[in-house]
Structure to design on (111 residues):
């Protein structure tokens, strides 16, 4: 997994392999949602001052299939920070083609 931090956001990427496929030979939606959860969750940890956060809600819209052999890259950004909740938006692409659009809410633990 490739990870790059930028001011106010995070970018991740991976090359889709056969082990990431479903029975239709495209990247399994669960793999894409897991990547979105990891990417967006890492960002909340950073934004929360490196305090643990837990996914409270995660929604994804599958926009097109990601194929084996493609480079899947994602970017996430915080849309709002409250006292105990952090709201994040993330997108995954294969090249210029949108694959997944996700939104989520993370609870800052201990607040």
């Amino acid at each position: 997994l490739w990870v790059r931090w930028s001011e106010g956001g995070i970018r991740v990427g991976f090359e889709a392999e056969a082990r990431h496929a479903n029975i239709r030979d495209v990247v399994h939606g669960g793999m894409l949602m897991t990547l979105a959860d990891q990417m967006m969750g890492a960002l909340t940890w950073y934004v929360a001052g490196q305090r643990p956060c837990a996914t409270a809600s995660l929604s994804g819209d599958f926009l097109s299939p990601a194929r084996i052999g493609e480079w899947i890259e994602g970017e996430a950004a915080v849309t709002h920070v409250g006292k105990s909740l952090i709201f994040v938006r993330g997108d995954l692409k294969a090249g210029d083609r949108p694959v997944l659009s996700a939104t989520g809410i993370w609870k800052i633990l201990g607040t």
Notes: The radius of gyration is 14 Å. DSSP finds one helix and six strands in the chain. The mean pLDDT is 94.
